Amino acid sequence: MMMKNTHQLTGRLMEKEPLARYTSWRVGGIADRLYKPAGIEDAQQYLKSLPASEPVLWLGLGSNVLIRDGGVRGSVIYTRGCLKQMEQLADGMLKVEAGVPCALVAKLAAEKGLSGAEFLAGIPGTMGGALAMNAGAFGGETWALVSKVVLLNRHGDLIVREADDFDVGYRSVSLADDEWFVACYLDIPQGGNKESREKIRQLLAKRSQTQPTNVPSGGSVFKNPEGDHAAHLVEITGLKGYRIGGAKVSEKHSNFILNTGHATAKDIERLIEYVKGQVHKNQGVLLETEVRIIGEEKAQ
User: Fold this and answer.
1) Second label for 252, Cα 20 to 30 Å away, from 32, 77, 143, 239?
2) Do the Cβ atoms of 25 and 220 come closer than 8 Å?
3) DSSP labels, 230-252
4) Per-residue pLDDT of the chain (300 residues; tens, 9 = 90+)
């Protein structure tokens, strides 16, 4: 691949980079290229340096994504620890870049006496991922807080849009394939500093009690169907603890699939499909995956 204007880049480019270390499931093949930008402007320059045919994937904490064993062709732009600026503006809004973990946004909001962002402490991803899928936890949803967003398109152009410009639903946001969120402005009401911190503490305690937080997983695998919970459907189908290879349905929360130590992405994908099929057969409900499955099944 011929890149142009690479002398202007100030981030870190890695060739043939294994992606398992960048995903919460700890699986995934090799990316042709992985780029850690020095900031939003550097990410712009990187996109401008790529040939038009180069596929691009953005990756944050690597939760809610299953990268197949064959890896990813093209470029992966990694935002965690890169697009990391977060500040409160004069008008009280929080401006947050896409690589900031959601838990840190919840913490900053509480420190600033803002109330309503506590649920973000329970989302194991970055703001970029939360924006892309309208992530939620404990009854709260990301886009309820969003005033406007900053995007980058495939040509490296920055675009600012209002929240109302997007069609937002349960775990879904209308977004063009060649645009990515790089920052957002959050409008969070004033509240009590002490109360917010206590609420975060309670939410994290609840998460620890009800979810397998100490074993590699991808977060919630399936969307909750209307009027029910995916975990309930998987449980009554008798699939708690069911395993394929190194992948296992969690006994603590059956909407989680665990990597017990040596799972491949193929093990996890086969288990997702098996669970989906069994729930459909036994409960008459076709579950939708919340997890995005990306990449090649076999290495090239």
Assistant:
1) 143
2) no
3) HHHHHHHTT-TT-EETTEEE-SS
4) 656 666 689 999 999 999 999 999 999 999 999 999 999 999 999 999 999 999 999 999 999 999 999 999 999 999 999 999 999 999 999 999 999 999 999 999 999 999 999 999 999 999 999 999 999 888 899 999 999 999 999 999 999 999 999 999 999 999 999 999 999 999 999 987 788 888 888 988 888 888 888 899 999 999 999 999 999 999 999 999 999 999 999 999 999 999 999 999 999 999 999 999 999 999 999 999 999 999 998 765
220 is annotated as an active-site residue = yes
- Find all residues with CB under 8 Å of 272, minimum gap 6, and list them: 66, 221, 257, 289, 291, 293
Q: How far apart are the first and last CA of the chain?
A: 16
Catalytic residue among 17, 97, 118, 290: 290
> How far apart are alpha carbons 116 and 80 in whole angstroms?
24
270 is catalytic: no
* Rounded Cα gap, residues 214 and 198, in angstroms: 22
- Given the residues 220, 250, 254, 269, the one annotated as active site: 220
- Which of these is catalytic: 54, 73, 147, 171? 171
